[in-house]
Amino acid sequence: MRLKHGQWDFYLAAIDQGLCYVGTQNEDFEDLEKWAKKRLPGYVLIEKEDVLKCYAKELMEFLDGQRKEFTSVTALHGTPFQQSVWQALLEIPFGETVTYSTIAERIGNPKAVRAVGTAIGANPMLIIVPCHRVIGKNGALTGFRGGLDMKAQLLELES
Question: How does residue 145 score in pLDDT terms, banded at 50, 70 and 90?
Answer without folding.
Answer: confident
